[in-house]
Model the fold of this input.
Amino acid sequence: MVSRGHVVHSACRYFLRHGTVDMEALARDLAISRATLYRVVGSRDGLLADVLWQLADHLLDRARRRRTRGGVDGVLEITRYFVTALRGSAPFRAFLRAEPETARRLLTGGGVHRRAVLAQRAILLEAGEGRPLWPEAGVDELAYLYVRVVESALYAELLSSRRLDPALAERAARAVLRQTL
Done:
C-alpha cells in the first residue's frame, strides 16, 4: 500500500518538473490506479496544498537558517529571502500562470495559508532570540496579519491583476510588526 507521505513526495518531484500535478501521470509514476491515488490523497486540491506547503516550508527553513539578524529586521530578512526564492521558482510561476483560480483558492484561503500563519507565528516567537518581542497573547493575530500583508504583495497579480511594489509591501510589513512592539 502506498502512503500519503510517499505520494506527496512524488507529487513534489512531479510539480518541480512540470509546475503542476497531473493525477493520471502521477498515478502512472507511482504504479497505482487513479482510484487508489484518490483514495490515498482525497482530492487533487488537497494533494496540491500539501505539495505547495512542503515546498514553501522547505524554503522557509532555508530562509530561517540564513537569517543574520534578530527582531523585526530578522523577520523581514526571512520574508525577503522566502519571497525572492518563491518568485524565482519557475515551477511555481508556471503553476500561477496555468492555474490562477486553483492557486488563489489554495494559497490564500486554505490549508497553505493556515500553515503559513503557524510557521510565521514560530518565526515571530524566535525573533526575540530568547526574549519575547510581542505579547504571546497577540502573536497569533500578528502572524495572521503579517501573512496577509505578505500574501497581498506576493500574490497581487492573482488577487487584483496588478503587481505590488515590493518596497511598499516591505514597509507595510515592517509597520505591522513595529506597531505591535
About this structure: The CA atoms of residues 149 and 172 lie 7 Å apart. The chain has eleven helices and no strands. The chain has one domain: 44-179. The mean pLDDT is 93.
